[in-house]
Amino acid sequence: MKTDMQLLNNDGIRCDGRKIDELRKITIKAGILKNANGSAYIEFGNNKILVGVFGPRDVHPKHLSDTNTGILRCRYHMSPFSVTERKNPAPSRREIEISKVIKEALQPSVILKKFPRTVVDVFVEVLQADGGSRCAALNAASIALADAGIPMKDMVSACAAGKIADTIVLDVNNEEDQAGQADMPVGYMPNLDKITLLQLDGILTTQEYEKCIDVAIQGCKIVYEIQKKALIDKFFKCDIK
Ligand code: ADP
Question: How far, rounded to the nearest angstrom, does the alpha carbon of residue 95 sit from its chain's CA centroid?
């Protein structure tokens, strides 16, 4: 476990060389799975995540279907090789929780009224995890939903803020998550100015809590621009020779 000094040195530099308000490097590519209606691949620091969206399609089992609207389902899954110790491929309590929070974070962004009795399935496959995988997955899921042509009010952009060495920082990595004092993942719809995911692991004062939300929202706004670029690259760029 890293000490406070190793997490944040006297020059304000973190264990991975970032400043306190700096995001990890993010790259997103839309539309990479042939068999999915929409898909995306994200690298968020060392997180590598693939998302496939299928639907709107018939609901199985049928009793889950709703005659008034389409429904959203989400499965977050970590591959056995995604972390240093082999992860059991069976769904863990943590994966069930993250599937639920990702679904609830995406739900306010999609408009499924026009697709009664159908389901939109979002499959998240974590190939490599390094802290903040739920936020990275949410960012890719939003792109995959847009790539599938699902009507949306806005995209959900996500990133965490947290507290390490008594300092509020943007985008907590795995080492900071383990040795730090707090981790707060936030999902946010920038155009609608609405938070759709807010979790907190750790203890913060009221002022720190408010600062963390502000810092995370600023991070989400940067992520949003990268998400838009991924969609522009897929849909509006063509090679004119
Ligand atoms: P998030 O990935 O959204 O931050 P957590 O805070 O639960 O979710 O997990 C933090 C990090 O801990 C993960 O990104 C991953 O790097 C690591 N981790 C999660 N589950 C396992 C596991 N079963 N074995 C080893 N490392 C894990």
Answer: 14
Distance 172 CA to ligand 1 centre (A): 12
Give the C-alpha separation, 140 to 123, whole Å.
Answer: 11
Range of the domain at 203: 4-240
- Whose alpha carbon is nearest atom 2 of ligand 1? 133
What is d(CA 141, CA 146) in angstroms, rounded to the nearest whole number? 9
Output the pLDDT for position 236. 87
Number of structural domains (the chain) is 1
Q: Where are the beta strands (DSSP E) in the chain?
A: 26-30, 38-44, 47-58, 71-78, 118-128, 157-164, 167-170, 182-189, 194-198, 201-202
Contact present, 191 and 142 (Cβ < 8 Å): no
Report the predicted TM-score, pTM, of the whole model to 2 decimal places: 0.96
Asked if residue 241 has pLDDT above 60, the reply is no
Distance CA 26, CA 42 (A): 7
Residue 45 CA to ligand 1 center (angstroms) comes to 14
CATH number, domain with residue 84: 3.30.230.70
5 falls in which pLDDT band (50, 70, 90)? Answer: confident
Residue among 170, 67, 152, 154 at smallest CA distance from 116:
67
Q: For the segment 188-224, what is each residue's pLDDT rounded down to a tens digit?
A: 999 999 999 999 999 999 999 999 999 999 999 999 9
Question: What is the rounded average pLDDT for all residues in the chain?
Answer: 96
* CA 129 – ligand 1 centroid, Å: 6
